[in-house]
Design a protein that fits this description.
188 residues; mainly alpha; elongated
């Protein structure tokens, strides 16, 4: 953390190598989170690049009352939302799978298991696509990026209580969509 503050201070003094180090530290983690929000690798690359540009331009506004990554993540979420609003094109299931990639499969099980897992992942992605943008974002922040309620509240600029209630509604909405998509596999 101290090293991070030192890099920020050096960046503010005009040291581009220091900001480059901040980019190297966080670009993969930020990209991984953003790709789940925008659901497209190429768009995620654009969003992450724009987020770092905005962070560089706004670096003097960083108050040090939160972690740098949390502040950067908030910028990336806002850029993602703006980007998605500008581009309202829905991805097909195939495009979505191509954009987000498949999870590693366990080939030690039955020969049909990889196909079953791939089908379940596809169904989960379909259910995630049906969520509102707010609900999808909060599910991604909590379950894919494993952020704490406090960090989510800071990123989305809402209270922890709102995070809890929105996450509860998002989970309920996701479960309802899964029940429709996987009626034999999700208990009613």
């Amino acid at each position: 953390m101290n090293d991070e503050l030192h890099l920020i201070e050096r960046s503010l003094d005009g040291d581009s190598d220091a900001f480059g180090e901040l980019v190297r530290r966080y670009q993969d983690r930020l990209y991984s989170a953003v790709v789940h929000i925008v659901r497209c690798r190429a768009e995620a690359e654009d969003v992450v690049q724009e987020a770092f540009i905005q962070a560089y331009v706004k670096l003097q506004t960083f108050k040090h009352n939160s972690r740098f990554y949390t502040w950067l993540y908030r910028i990336a979420v806002n850029v993602s939302i703006s980007h998605r609003r500008r581009k309202r094109v829905e991805l097909s299931v195939e495009q979505n799978r191509e954009a987000t990639g498949d999870e590693p499969l366990d080939y030690r099980s039955s020969p049909s298991h990889p196909l079953e897992v791939a089908e379940q992942q596809q169904k989960l992605q379909q259910a995630m696509q049906r969520l509102t943008e707010d609900h999808r974002t909060i599910i991604v922040l909590r379950h894919l990026d494993e952020m704490s309620y406090e960090d989510i509240a800071e990123v989305l600029e809402i209270s922890v209580g709102t995070v809890r209630s929105r996450l509860h509604r998002a989970r309920e909405q996701l479960l309802e969509h899964l029940k429709e998509i996987l009626p034999d596999e999700v208990p009613r």
